[in-house]
Amino acid sequence: LGTMKVNHKGHLEIGGCDTVELAQRFGTPLYVIDEALFRQNCRDYYRAFTEEYGAEVIYASKTLTNLAVCTIVEQEGLGLDVVSGGELYTAAMARFPMHRVYFHGNNKSPEELRQALEYKVGRIVVDNLYELELLNQIAGELATRAKIIIRLSPGVEAHTHEYIKTGQIDSKFGLAIENGMAMAAVKRCLELNNVELKGFHCHIGSQIFELQSYAHAAEVMMDFVQDVYLATGYLTEELDLGGGLGIYYCQGDEPRPVKEYADIMMGALKARAARYNLPLPKIIVEPGRSISGPAGTTLYTVGAIKDIPGIRKYVSVDGGMGDNPRPALYQAKYEACAANRMTEANAEKVSIAGKCCESGDMLIWDIELPALQAGDILAVASTGAYNYSMSMNYNRLPRPAMVLVGGGKADLIVRREDYADLIRNDVIPERLRSSVV
Ligand code: LLP
């Protein structure tokens, strides 16, 4: 994948950098981001959607964001999907062009809405009626008009290899089409003075391989566009159809090419628009995982190895659920290799344990690897998405550093947390200091 290869020392190399040297230089655990692959993934979307169909691609920050990543996304011509004041602030500090920012979230605070309006973000994706009224009021106070997109639940739920219609009325996100809440919101929007309705949004899920589910959701959205037109005369300008394309983590995962995804979805949209004799709205897609995920690799140093005869060999590494909570949270599967033993044959089946005080902190169960020893470097693949962004300080483990590699160069883009960072926000109240116990 990407620029990964094995060098003359038998070491894993990413972006022309020897990962064993990266581990020595920057320490472990270490997030390594392959710049060329990240950019390539952006370009695949830009070509398939923007160049081919004039659609806008906005990268989902929630998968991985920081100042350097925002800078790359900007350079590749993509927009940005943010879901909190923090992600918005990061974009602003990276000088990301705010008209290319879309602000999502099911419970934006009044402060976040005000912040978004003051930054002049491109679109606010309104999730519910409470937010609609609140935003209208805040926009009024700021003497501005918020450009909004309403989030809908189209009643399409995607699964890895199938799609099913569900009673999506029962979701914390968006307004359901089928119970009339979506239509009611549209009508209310058209009455409000300080919001300008631009279109509609949906997101049917993540890590999806079944492209038909996108086509189906797109059709349901176009049906709604037609219903709204007939009921109110409002002509939808934009449709934001979410993210979700699945990536390869382990055997059985069969990612589809971005071009195929674009062609199938745009084909379905065009056919519906033609059927209704409506202009095709501007299309927006919000990929995250399929851009950042494959571009990330995490390096760990092997420590304690415990063989329980006849049962299992546990190989512990110096990170785990703190830097990658996905196996513990979702039983997510990952593949790994011994970065300093790439030319050695697999010798045994082991399980990779994290270092948190929690039995569930297992990164990988039952993986074939060369015989490992303490000090070896383990590389876990496809950790670019929802790893650093979901990392935590459980057990007061400092978060790892992140390096951007490319053309044989490695640059620190997130510095490693240290112990001082861990107590930075701690306060000992004066009365604890002075009290005699
Ligand atoms: N747009 C919206 C509105 C979303 O809710 C999401 C993801 C995306 C775009 C990006 O989807 P992607 O292309 O990355 O699939 N933490 C979970 C995944 C949560 C997905 C949340 N929404 C995980 O680690 O698998």
UniProtKB/TrEMBL annotation:
EC annotation from Swiss-Prot or TrEMBL: 4.1.1.20
Domain of life: Bacteria
One of the Pfam families matching this protein, by short name: Orn_Arg_deC_N
Binding site for substrate: R289, R326, Y330, E358, Y386
InterPro entries, alphabetized: Ala_racemase/Decarboxylase_C (IPR009006), DAP_deCOOHase_LysA (IPR002986), De-COase2_C (IPR022643), De-COase2_N (IPR022644), Orn/DAP/Arg_de-COase (IPR000183), PLP-binding_barrel (IPR029066)
Residues forming the catalytic site: C357
NCBIfam families: lysA
Name recorded for this polypeptide: Diaminopimelate decarboxylase
Organism: Desulfotomaculum nigrificans (strain DSM 14880 / VKM B-2319 / CO-1-SRB) (Desulfotomaculum carboxydivorans)
